[in-house]
Design a protein that fits this description.
heterotrimer; A alpha/beta (471); B mainly alpha (225); C mainly alpha (193); A: 471 residues; alpha/beta; Rossmann fold; 6-stranded mixed beta sheet; 12 helices; 24% strand; B: 225 residues; mainly alpha; 2 domains; ABC transporter permease (chain B); membrane (chain B); transmembrane (chain B)
Chain lengths: 471, 225, 193
């Protein structure tokens, strides 16, 4: 069986930046199913791209050591040879296809490894049958759900006959059903086709009885440690939100229906976001939480009515609407309008809708609270993931739209930063009477500060009755 | 009605450019109209959507009209002749282009160029991969604009900030796509199996040469009105 | 998720080697440009439907030409401008165009103009000087092209002078000054080195 191992590997993205890995040793056990966990931003993606031989071709530089695949330096093997041994599935399923349809995509991959022409159709039939995807052959990839796209990507890997399959957060855009299906498929590949499987995931659920090894990547001292499989039996702490009495509010929606790429996400939902309170929007991956926030920001088409103070959203132009509803994007770099952190804050201060509240004094206090005061002269894009998140959050809080929607604002924050960020949102929302709705997969340390929880499941949005609390 | 198979996509591209280039130097209304009619007949023969064709032709009317009129106002010499040359030329170009764009799917065109005219696979597949993201790129453009509006700004065409945002998205997405394709075995400059079938009989090249030569002869030797 | 992997290393050798990523990168930029052009073409159309069409052409030409010099300063290799501009033109023609065959032809001519500018500096200067040369190069080459293609030689001499000046200003701003600003910003981010 083919062996893949990192040996004394040191890596950094830029000469001026610190090392991501420092003399790292890690071996993937052939024929096993391994799970690698660790907080977001700890370097899981980087490690996977190194193992797959995509770095340093696609970024960064190796300072010491190497990744060895079957006795060879993985980065030096030609991609069309490498693909037969190791292949990778990526976080963003929609950005990994060269072609338009499932069969074109599979053909493309098989052409790359120079499979003889006569064998291509039968190889495609074979792998589609393994995944029960026969009916998908002519489907357009961009209209499939995240889970379906990942299954096609997996079928591509099986067609290439790669021995080692690396999956980098493959469930980030996949719903629960899709996740279960994919995990089942992966286990079958391991057992029936003797594949080696390594998954990076921050969520441990569903791996019990499937994973053979559990590893942890620590962000502080980037070393990989083996953990007992018993850690997969998670204690069932659910971190509920206790429901407070809801205020009235300005932004409401009636009979809201959301459809994306032929998939129904939400049907006939009604709700009013309460003023001055914080809500959690929960639900499985890929269920449509980000799409709902995008629709409320008028960035995704919808059916039904969204209105502000009883006036339909269509009667506002985009510019006006964005002065009422602000969105903290999931991806920090989608938020930045200026080059340096300082200019980013200054712009918000200049155009703030609550200039009396956001005095220089208050802003400086917040910058210190978030530990951003020292990095103001830096370029936004050069900040660490956590710093970008905090900067993004503060710049939107200073804008202070009456409705503030936040898509995973705590991703990649350490516990201390998370606490400060949440407290800042809480203070601002209460004092300025903003209606806030937060999407966060992180519940620990978050839920106790929130006032209500909306759960999106089975195309329905439900206000969870987590023990009414009038306090 | 099913579409009829027209000429090979590579051949059509060569015809389009081979006639398009001398067309820029020819001064004949008659020949412009001949090109328009031949292209139209070819489009009808290939059974392309008549409605789309009409819409595209209609959309170009203001441009052709503007060209025509400007020569009547600012032209020197035989103003009427000039007006008709450059007015009809807009349509000659447009219809020449349509014989390619309305008849071949983008994938077939790029792969045909790869097969017959040595367009490197890196370009053919790189372009295809990017085209698949069209809908997402459109969405992303609106998001970029909205992110500025949420901060009380509007991005204008003349502001470098707008382009910076575009370049950053392009950097990230091109990295993701190229890495994925590499992981799927795509190797720049390496041999690949070719499963794309795209017949190109010899007579089509002869036809191409015939068309281009006779056009040049008519345009520069006969020089009709 | 933040942009950390997105470091683009400019190939120091002047060899014309296009990686898969270069192609996708420029194609995505070209699609964005296509969307921008679509939104702005209304203004162009309003003007182009009148005898003022030559003015509309020359006034907006700079925007159409940007892709070439932008590709040049971002990738910094010989041929980048002309291939960049051709890529943009191909995307235009295949996805958006209402100009048909002339899109590709003009794209080529415009790219050649830019390329000549950078070539004048021996492909050593991708900064102010290179951009000035490239803007001048494309103004002159495209103007000569339009003498034939758009029949400019039928216009009166005084109109031609006016058009040339307008074209120089438009290209000078969009394909010169603006591209210079963009380049400065992009390099400050450290994402391209």
């Amino acid at each position: 069986m083919i062996k893949l191992a990192a040996q004394q590997l040191s890596f950094r993205y830029q000469p001026t930046k610190s090392l991501i890995f420092d003399h790292l040793d890690f071996q993937v056990e052939p024929g096993t199913f391994s799970l690698l966990t660790g907080p977001s931003g700890c370097g899981k993606s980087t490690l996977f791209k190194l193992l797959a031989g995509l770095y340093p071709q696609y970024g960064g530089q190796i300072e010491t050591g190497q990744v060895v695949l079957d006795g060879q330096n993985v980065a030096e093997i030609l991609p069309n040879q490498r693909a037969k041994k190791v292949a990778m599935l990526f976080q963003n399923p929609s950005r990994q296809f060269a072609m338009r349809t499932v069969s074109e995509q599979l053909t493309f991959a098989l052409e790359n490894i120079q499979l003889p022409l006569v064998k291509i159709p039968q190889q495609i039939e074979k792998v589609l049958a393994v995944f029960n995807l026969d009916s998908f052959k002519q489907r357009k990839l961009q209209t499939l759900s995240g889970g379906e796209q990942q299954r096609v990507a997996l079928a591509t890997v099986l067609a290439l006959d790669s021995q080692i399959i690396l999956l980098d957060e493959p469930f980030a855009n996949v719903d629960l059903t899709g996740r279960k299906q994919l995990l089942h498929d992966l286990k079958q590949l391991q057992l029936n086709y003797q594949k080696t499987i390594l998954v990076a995931d921050h969520d441990l659920s569903g791996y019990q009885g499937i994973a053979d090894h559990l590893y942890h990547l620590d962000s502080k001292t980037p070393q990989i440690t083996s953990r007992p499989l018993t850690e997969l039996q998670q204690s069932a702490t659910s971190w509920p939100v206790s429901l407070h009495k809801l205020n009235s509010g300005d932004l409401s929606w009636q009979q809201l229906t959301l459809v994306t790429a032929k998939r129904q996400l939400l049907t006939g939902s009604n709700f009013t976001l309460p003023r001055g309170q914080l809500g959690l929007l929960s639900g499985e991956n890929g269920v449509g939480k980000s799409t709902l926030l995008a629709a409320l920001s008028q960035l995704h088409p919808y059916q039904g009515q969204i209105s502000y103070q009883q006036k339909a959203a269509q009667k506002f132009n985009q510019q006006h609407w964005n002065q009422l509803v602000g969105l903290v994007f999931q991806n920090s770099s989608d938020q930045f309008v200026r080059l340096s952190a300082q200019d980013e804050i200054k712009l918000s201060q200049k155009n703030s809708l609550q200039p009396k509240y956001w005095t220089i004094k208050r802003i400086i206090q917040c910058l210190q609270q978030l530990d951003l005061a020292g990095i103001l002269d830096q370029v936004c894009y050069q900040l660490s993931g956590g710093q970008q998140k905090k900067l993004q959050l503060l710049s939107m809080l200073i804008m202070a739209q009456p409705v503030l929607l936040l898509d995973e604002p705590f991703a990649g924050l350490d516990p201390q930063s998370l606490k400060q960020a949440l407290q800042l949102i809480r203070e601002t929302a209460t004092q300025l009477q903003l209606s806030s709705l937060i999407v966060s997969h992180q519940r620990a340390g978050v839920t106790e500060k929130l006032d209500y929880e909306l759960e999106l499941a089975h195309q329905q949005l439900t206000l969870l009755q987590g023990g009414l609390n009038n306090g | 009605m099913a579409k009829k198979r027209g000429l090979n996509a590579s051949v059509m591209t060569v015809i389009m450019l081979g006639i398009g280039l001398p067309l820029s130097f020819s001064l004949s209304v008659t020949l412009n109209l001949v090109i328009c009619s031949l292209a139209l007949i070819y489009l009808i023969y290939c059974r392309v959507s008549l409605k789309t064709t009409l819409l595209v032709l209609l959309a170009a009317l203001p441009l052709a009209f503007g060209s025509w009129w400007s020569f009547l106002i600012f032209g020197t010499g035989d103003q009427w002749h000039s007006a008709w040359i450059y007015g009809s030329r807009v349509y000659a170009y447009l219809l020449l282009g349509m014989t390619v764009t309305m008849n071949c799917r983008v994938k077939d065109l790029l792969l045909s160029l790869h097969l017959h005219l040595k367009l490197p696979a890196t370009f053919a597949y790189g372009l295809l991969a990017a085209f698949n993201l069209l809908a997402r790129i459109r969405q992303q453009y609106h998001q970029i604009q909205a992110s500025a509006m949420m901060r009380g700004q509007v991005y204008h065409l003349w502001q470098p900030g707008l382009y910076l945002r575009i370049i950053i998205i392009a950097l990230n997405w091109s990295g993701d796509l190229a890495a994925a394709m590499t992981s799927q075995g795509f190797t720049e400059g390496a041999k690949r199996t070719i499963s794309f079938v795209d017949p190109l009989p010899r007579w089509q090249w002869l036809l191409t040469a015939g068309l281009i030569i006779s056009y040049c002869w008519a345009a520069f030797v006969i020089q009709p009105w | 998720m933040f942009v950390k992997g997105a470091i683009f290393l400019i190939n120091q050798s002047k060899k014309i080697h296009w990686t898969l990523r270069d192609v996708i990168f420029l194609a995505i930029i070209a699609i964005f440009f296509g969307i921008i052009y679509q939104l702005w073409s209304y203004a162009y159309y309003a003007l182009a439907a009148t005898p003022l069409k030559p003015y509309a052409n020359d006034l907006t030409l700079g925007v159409w030409i940007m892709a070439g010099p932008l590709a040049g300063v971002l990738l910094q290799k010989a041929g980048a401008s002309v291939i960049g501009e051709m890529l943009a033109a191909a995307v235009e023609m295949l996805l958006f165009s209402s100009w048909g065959a002339s899109t590709l032809l003009s794209g080529f001519i415009q790219g050649i103009g830019n390329e000549l500018g950078f070539a004048c500096t021996g492909y050593r200067n991708w900064d102010k000087l290179g951009l000035i040369c490239s803007a001048l190069g494309s103004t002159i080459i495209t103007f000569i092209w339009d003498l034939f293609q758009s029949g400019y030689r039928q216009y009166s001499f005084s109109l031609l002078i006016g058009l040339f000046v307008i074209r120089l200003i438009s290209i000078g701003f969009f394909a010169g000054v603006l591209v210079y600003w963009i380049k400065k910003m992009v390099f400050k981010t450290g994402l391209i080195r």
